[in-house]
Amino acid sequence: MNIFRFAGDMMHLTSILVLLLKIYATKSCSGISLKTQELYALVFLARYLDLFTDFISVYNTIMKLVFIVSSTAIVWCMKRDRVVRRSYDKQLDTFRHYFLLAASFALALLVNEKFTFQEIFWAFSIYLEAVAILPQLVLLQRSGNVDNLTGQYVFFLGAYRAFYILNWIYRYFTETHFSRWIACISGLVQTALYADFFYYYYISWKNNTKLKLPA
Amino acid sequence: SSTNELKDEL
C-alpha cells in the first residue's frame, strides 16, 4: 500500500458516499445514469470473484464488500425505490451500454494476463470500468445543469483513477517485478475520458458558476 | 509469483 493508492481508494469511497448522500438526502436520482451504476456493479462483481478465495488484508476485504454492497444498493434503489425511481431521467439515459459490455468482454477474451476464468473476468472488469462513466457523462451533457452533489460525485470518481496511475508509477519504480500493463493503459484511458469534465468542473469552480457541460 | 498475488489492488 502507498499513499497514492490509499488516497485513490479514499476518493473512490468518497464518490460513493457523495452519491449515496445525494440519493438519500434529496430522495432523488436526477442527473444520475442508472446505466453507469449498473456497469459499476458489474465491474465490482466481475473483479472481486476472489473475495472469498484470496485473502489479501482486512482493509482489502472490507473495501471490496463496501464497493459491492453500495453499487448494488444504488442500482436497486434507482430501480425499485418508489420515491427515488420517479426522478430517474429515463428519457435522457439512453446510452447503449450493452455495446460497452460486449466490447469489454470481447477485449478481455483477447487481451488478458492468463486465459483463465478469473483472469478474463478481471480484465473484463478493468476494461468495463474504463468506459462505464460514458453513459453518465452523456447524461450530464444532455441534462444541462448539474447539481453540486452529482458534480462532486463525478469529480471524485475521475480523480480516484488518476491517483491509481500515480500509484502504478510509484510501484513501477519501487518494486522489482511490478507490471500491470492492462490496468495502467486502461486507467489512462479511463482518466482521459474525464478530461473535458475536469476542465468544465475547474472553470465552474474558478468562476464560482454552476457546472454546465456543453451539449 | 502468481499473478493473483499482484491482484492486491481494489
UniProtKB/TrEMBL annotation, chain A:
Species: Juglans regia (English walnut)
Keyword Hydrolase annotated: no
Protein family (similarity comment): Belongs to the ERD2 family.
Membrane topology: Multi-pass membrane protein
Bilayer-spanning residue ranges: 55-77, 98-115, 121-141, 153-173, 179-202
GO biological process, one term: protein transport
Record Pfam families: ER_lumen_recept
InterPro entries noted in UniProt: ER_ret_rcpt
The keyword Endoplasmic reticulum is assigned to this record: yes
Gene Ontology terms for molecular function: ER retention sequence binding
Main localization of the protein described in the UniProt heading: endoplasmic reticulum
Subcellular location per the Swiss-Prot or TrEMBL entry: Endoplasmic reticulum membrane
UniProtKB keywords: Endoplasmic reticulum, ER-Golgi transport, Membrane, Protein transport, Receptor, Transmembrane, Transmembrane helix, Transport
Name of this protein: ER lumen protein-retaining receptor
Highest classification ranks of the organism: Eukaryota, Viridiplantae, Streptophyta, Embryophyta, Tracheophyta
CC per GO annotation: cis-Golgi network; endoplasmic reticulum; endoplasmic reticulum membrane
